[in-house]
Amino acid sequence: MNMNEMNLHKELKKYFGFDKFKGEQEKVIYSLLSGNDTFVLMPTGGGKSLTYQLPALMSEGVAIIVSPLIALMKNQVDSIRGISENKGIAHVLNSSLNKGETERVKSDIKNGVTKLLYVAPESLTKDENVEFFRSVKLSFFAIDEAHCISEWGHDFRPEYRNLRAIISKIGGNTPIIALTATATPKVQEDIQKTLGMNNATVFKASFNRANLFYEIRPKVNVNKELIKFAKQNEGKSGIVYCLSRKKVEEIAQMLQVNGINALPYHAGLDAKTRAKHQDNFLMEDVDVIVATIAFGMGIDKPDVRYVIHHDMPKSLESYYQETGRAGRDGGEGHCISFYAYKDIEKLEKFLVGKPIAEMEVGNALLQEVVSYAETSISRRKFLLHYFGEEFDEVNGDGADMDDNTRNPKPKSEAGKDVKILLDVIKATNQKFKAKEIVFALEGKTNALISTHKTDQKDFFGIGTHKPDKFWMAALRQVMVAGLIKKDIETYGVVKLTEKGEDFIASPKSFMIIEDHNYDNIEEEEKAISAAQKGGATGFDKQLFKELKELRKKVAKQKEVPPFAIFQDPSLEDMALQYPITLDEMKNIFGVGEGKAKKYGKKFIDSISKYVDDNNITRPDDLVIKTLANKSTNKVYIIQKTDQKFPLTDIAKDKSLSVEELLLQMEAIINSGTKININYEIDSILDEDQQDEIYEYFMEAETDAIENAVEEFDGEYTDEEIRMMRIRFMSEVAN
Ligand code: ADP
Ligand code: MG
């Protein structure tokens, strides 16, 4: 096709129904159609797919699109098929196809019907496929998610390494377009080198997401902070990311018991549950998804209003990707991460035992996360600098959208110190990474320092007059200002830039902000939790007595035993927290929504009166309901008993003994949720036996199992009594 005659807008409208190109899409497409190798760096949602889809549709031959995930390929194929009469216009070629299907795909390609062929890298390598591709007309290769090539990307895939060799085998001169949303200079260089496209035309969009608010909070009382935030943002969609599946389950339930509409999502859940939870989130039946990073790829919910990292991610790329899921519609997007250095140490431990290279990369990436968390400069500036982008922290888009900029720390003049820093970098021949440079300034030594005999130089320890952490903070800020940079080839080694050399020649003013110091946080956290624990025994004895009286009265009226109303630990907690609203009552230990509604009113009234009469100052702080560890499988247990699964099966699924399962059920019942296990009871006790035990509980002073077993002289087992008590409490108390 003659480039001049090409009317891309018409084609855009025809195939996709869009009136305008987004960002640099049009230029990218021209570049590719002109036969240039083309490299596209655009943030997620930037519209990268269209830059190869449209040219593929317009070109002669078939475009081979390499993509790492089958799910992503299927999505794209479906949407392309949606715009054409002919299903053969796009295909996926992978090992899951049977022989007939594979033949079909190949014949569609031979007949020129197929314009886009999606393949996983491992399918591309197959000999028979290589032979086949050599025999057909190709328009170009597209390598989507191209950062998978780089060990420095957050998603390295060894299969991507061989792509260049295969492409050369199949069609040496066919143009390549590589696309990624990862933009660190290191990854960028890796991609171009590995794909042999150093002469590519590069298009790099800005990675600035001006509507996102970035915030780091010390990881203190994180549960409370989460509940508070979710409550303040009720009805808005949010994602909470955790590093482990276990944490995901724990946090999801912690939010649930505190009245927040949340569901878990991780790869350990079965596909059906995952799909259901995802749907619930998309349809806004649920506000909050608590997830591992398994959640998000391909999720296109435009109005996620916040993303919270319960744990720091492994790299700033991951951080950027994950926070990037907030505010895609351009509206509010609050990104909060909870930072504690000990989490970084945990992540470091995961790296131990990996190949050295991987470990080094992993550690370097973690150090960037630490720097970001601890910095006091504009977070947006820091983040964008990491992606090789300049940001004007005064006038740039979104300049005041982070915690540091909103609450600035004082700056102090450090021009002289910067000069010292730069001098030391120069004097050590620009061969050290940040750590060694700082060591040299602080007069500390390690193997590298002594090997280079730096500890014998007269500048060694020249910076000891400065407080701890000063030099690292200074180094980072001098880097963001562009006076020094990390070498790409030998990642991490610090080099002077031209700007840095100028500064040495004629030193100027340089204002520095001290880093945040989150070091003492752990102790603080311990102190707080100790205080909370200590409090539990310090309940109001007088109120407790009155509540017990009230319980007796209510029990008589309702004709149920007192323990069926509220258990003692619940009354104790009430005597500690003084709940005077239904919401507060729900937060009392062992009190669920059902129980609060059923019995709460009278107790609330009584507590209110007590508080007034005695001039009590209530703890006005948010009270967090802790999830009894015992009921961690709550949702699962309720579902399975609803479906009448044998208890032995449920226990086995969760690797519990039946006794442990019953304990968990009791915890669920005690908080006011019904569980129906009559189907199981019917199979072990006849009607008379059931009645007998039921009657016993109705009359009993206490619900203690031992007493019941004794009462019946060992006629029933512990387990049988327990099951009957579960039934009894479900029916009578809840
Ligand atoms: P990326 O791969 O860069 O993350 P996608 O290719 O998935 O982004 O595109 C993101 C969204 O933008 C898609 O919903 C797509 O339909 C839409 N989009 C792409 N180009 C345009 C355009 N020119 N006009 C309007 N919407 C577009
Ligand atoms: Mg994409």
What layout of secondary structure does this protein have?
Layout: H1 8-16, H2 25-33, E1 38-41, H3 50-58, E2 62-66, H4 70-81, E3 90-93, H5 99-110, E4 116-119, H6 121-124, H7 127-134, E5 138-143, H8 163-171, E6 176-180, H9 185-194, E7 201-204, E8 212-218, H10 222-232, E9 237-241, H11 245-257, E10 262-265, H12 271-282, E11 288-291, E12 304-309, H13 316-323, E13 333-339, H14 341-351, H15 356-374, H16 379-386, H17 403-406, E14 411-413, H18 415-427, H19 434-442, H20 447-451, H21 470-480, E15 484-486, E16 494-496, H22 498-505, E17 511-513, H23 521-537, H24 541-558, H25 568-577, H26 582-586, H27 593-613, H28 634-642, H29 647-653, H30 658-670, H31 678-682, H32 687-699, H33 705-711, H34 718-733
Parallel strand pairs: 1-6, 1-7, 2-4, 2-5, 3-4, 5-6, 8-13, 9-11, 9-12, 10-11, 12-13
Antiparallel strand pairs: 14-17, 15-16
The structure holds adenosine-5'-diphosphate and magnesium ion (MG).
